[in-house]
Amino acid sequence: MKQSIDAPVAQLILDLEERGLLNRTLVVFASEFGRDMITEGKPGQEVKNQVDQPDIMTEPKHYGMHRHFTEAGSVLMFGGGAPRGKVYGQTADERPCRIIKNPVTIDDLHATIYTALGIAPDTSYEVEKRPFYVTKDGKGKAIPELLN
Prior knowledge:
By secondary structure, the chain is an alpha+beta fold. It has one domain. 19% of the residues lie in helices and 24% in strands. The protein contains two helices and ten strands, in the order αββββββββαββ. The strands form five sheets. Strands 1-6 form a two-stranded antiparallel sheet. Strands 2-5 form a two-stranded antiparallel ribbon. Strands 3-4 form a two-stranded antiparallel sheet. The longest helix is centred in the first third of the chain and has 17 residues. The two termini are 30 Å apart. The mean pLDDT is 82.
């Protein structure tokens, strides 16, 4: 699916940079989890209508119906305080691709994004006479390595 995603994303980033807006615009691409290329089901009892996974995925039908990487996912951040070309964290090469270096919690990711936007991660607003924080209970911590 990279052809349908990479070109428009690259063009957006190039357009923002050309117009001098990239440094003040944070673009974030994230997924709720990663996906594994193994077919679902048990040997001899595959999920109905499961797509056979080729060694190289060449068609949209090859995507989906995969197991989840429940421990790790990927986030891409461009501009707005994110360093260029930075790779942070690492997963193991073997399944289930556990995090082996620099794990980032959702709370800390949110804190990092808010910090890039100039909003303190412990900021709260009163909603129905109770504090509502921008990160869970205001405890998220920004990751300095993910900010310029």
